[in-house]
Amino acid sequence: MRTPRPVAFLAGATGGIGPAIARRLARDGFDLALATRRRPAEARALAIDVATSGARAIVVAGDLGREPAARRALEKTHRVFGRLDALVLAVGDLHLGKTSETTARDLRAQFATNVELPWTLARAALPRLRRSPRARVVFFVMSGVSALTGKRQVAAHAAAKTALLVMARSLALEVARDGIVVTAVAPGVVRTSRSRRAAVQPFLKAVPGGRAVTPDEVAAAVSACLSVDAATWSGAEVPAALGFGL
């Protein structure tokens, strides 16, 4: 049956910031499709958790960087809820290492998870998003990539996220007349249980705010991008970084 609540498809639901985004969107009144590549049990537990906020949630699992899997996941979402209003793409692995230490395989992996996966999902979701009166797409980029400056220790990751930002802004232009608002949330250094503290420490020193942002703070930025008030934000890069990358 078609739900009266808006529906958000959250890719990366079991990542470091995924659960915080899911809980925030549930409180905001969304029903949810929680997508994960490798942790369906965690996603099912999260679905039970967000139900306490009144949200209905389903779990979809698989390699959503492949078009058949992406289509099946979105078809399941539409079959259960009857609509799709938002696509939140909180995906992308992080490779740390100097350019001289980064292999071609490392580079391909960064583009596969940070560019190809979200782009494949976005393309597959467009026909259904065009039917929504409040359609939103949120990509995740790296804080400061729009400045096109060099990035120590994260060259491959920054290259992929820069490509994704250009793609996001191009999509924003293409779908503006359809009423689809496309934004890019740009977290800085995020404090999560999966953070590698030793690896993250050098980046923390460069944060003007003096600390890492929390997953809840990133979730608040996503919430703002999905709000009615964000109708004029298409193509915007929304920071959640305490000045990191400026």
Span from first to last CA?
46 Å
CATH topology: Rossmann fold
Which sequence of strands runs across the widest sheet?
Answer: 3-2-1-4-5-6-7
Major sheet characteristics: 7 strands, parallel
Strand segment tally: 7
CATH class: Alpha Beta
Overall, the morphology is globular
How would you characterize this protein structure?
This protein is of the alpha/beta class and 246 residues long. It has a single domain (7-238), classed as NAD(P)-binding Rossmann-like Domain (Rossmann fold, 3-Layer(aba) Sandwich), CATH 3.40.50.720. Helices cover 42% and strands 15% of the residues. It is built from seven helices and seven strands, in the order E-H-E-H-E-H-E-H-E-H-E-H-H-E. The protein has helices spanning 18-27, 40-50, 67-81, 104-129, 155-175, 197-204, 215-226, and strands at residues 7-11, 31-36, 57-61, 86-89, 136-140, 181-187, 237-240. Strands 3-2-1-4-5-6-7 form a seven-stranded parallel β-sheet, with helices on both faces. The mean pLDDT is 92.
